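Protocol step 4 of 6: structure prediction from sequence.
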Amino acid sequence: MLSKKLIELRKQKKLTQEAVAKKLGIPRGTYSNYELGKREPDLETLKRIADFHGVSIDELLGREAYSVAKETSSVAKETEAEYQALKSELSEFADNKRPTLWGRYDLVALLNLILGLPDEDRRKFVKALEMITDVLEKRNDSERDF
């Protein structure tokens, strides 16, 4: 698999084996043997080849490319959705539209969710709780005035 990938990447750049070998600092015959599948590069050479072609070692070896950015984006979207749902429930709870928040989230699950949020989202959550607390305190103050 490595040999085919090396040929493919070299041809994409329209380079000769000699040119690639020179860039990697290895003899042309050695590089030719990599493409023929007669030899395999050591780890350091494999790193240089991957860097030269702008690919991962996994990709060179034929493994499926794993996108950290995609995974991170997916987790961020899930976290944002959970945050928005919780924020909405807290707002509804504060406005007395729902009799209880705890029907959906028990306290431990709620705390685990909050602790699992990234720092910025935790700050947003704390700010939302502070706003809700202010609303509830104002409501309690106005009820005492009567």
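Step 5 (inspection) to follow. Residues 98-102 have pLDDT under 50 and may be disordered.
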